[in-house]
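Posting for a labmate who doesn't have an account.
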Amino acid sequence: MGISQTVGQNSLNLTQDVKTVQTLLNRAMKTYIRFGQTQEKLTPDGICGSKTITAIGYFQSMVMRHKYPDKRIEPNKNTWKKLNENIPSKTQIRATASLQKSQLDNFLTWFKSDATSNVEKLADSFYKEVAKFLEVKSEVAGPKPVGLSKVTVEPFRQGDGKWGSIKLGNSSTGTIHSYGCAMVSLAMATTYLGSRTKHWPENLTPQKMTPIHANNILKKAGVFTANSYMLYITGGANALGMQAKDSGVGVKLGASARGNIDQCLSSGGLVLVHVDYKKSWVGDHWLLLTQKNSNGEYSGVDPAYGKVLKLYKTPATGQTTSAHVVMYGRADSFGERTPENVKNYKVVRFVTLNAGTE
C-alpha cells in the first residue's frame, strides 16, 4: 500500500491517496489508544476535509511528537513510514492466526472437559467487574467533555475558580470571569480543532488546553490590544492553530448568513457566535456553536455557565423578529432553568472556525 502524491493541508490530495491515508489513520486509532480517543473515525471517501487534516496533525503531534505538525503526509517520508507501520505483514498475520487457533483449541479442550462450568455466569461476573472499574474510572477522571453529535469540546466556564480571577490579556483590572467569554470559547474550540503553533509552550497538546494556557498564548502572540482585554478574534484563532473567518463586524447580518454557519458545522468546523441580549445589535457575549441538529436547532456551549445550550432560527412566541438576527435564544435553551439573559440571546455576528492555520 502506498501513495503517489502528498496528502493533507495544501496538498494535491488525489482521491485514492486520500482514501489510503484515511484507512491507515483509522487503523492507527486502534493501535495508538490515546490518539484514537481524541479522534472520530474517518469515512474513507477520498475527500481531504478538515477532519482528515486534523487527524493527520494529531497523529504527527501525539504519535510522532512533532512540535509543529505540518498536517501533510508525503510519500516515503517520516509521517508516511510511521503511519504505514500499522499494516501487518503477511508473516505477522500468519503468526497471529496460528496463535489464535492454538488458543481456541485449548479453550475448546477445557470447555468440553468441564461440562459443569457455567460459562454464562462467569462471563456475567466478569462484565460486572469491568462495569465497576469503568464507573470508578469515570468518577476520578474529572469533568467529562461535552459530546455533541460526535463533536467533543471541553466545557470551560469563565468563572471557574482555577482561572476566573486571572487578569485577561493585557488588562490590569479585567478578569477572565468578567470579560473572558471570547477567549474561553476559543480555548474550548482549540480542544477539538486546534494545533500547535510557535506560541505554544512545550508539551502542550490541544486536548490539554485550558483558558489559562490560551490566555498566555494569546498574550504571547500579541492579539490582545495594548493595556486591554480586547481580543482580535481571528488572530487569536490562528495563534491557537485554527483558521477563522469573521462575519458581521459593523454590519447587520441577514438570516441568509445562517447558510455559512451551516456549511461550517457540516464540514466539521465550529462557530463562535456573538450574541446580544441588551436589545441592540452590537453584541454583548460570545459562545461556541458545535452542531446543527436534525430538527433545525443549534447546540453549543455557553462559557458563562460551562453548559450546553440551544439556539433557534426562529424567535419564541412573543419575541420580536429582527432582520439582522441570525438565531435566537428561548426559555428552553438549557436543559434546566434558563437564565433570563439567555432567553434574550440574539446572534448578531459570528466567526467560523476550522482546523489548520492560514
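Reply:
Got it, the C-alpha cells are right above this. The chain has three domains: 7-84, 90-138, 147-355.
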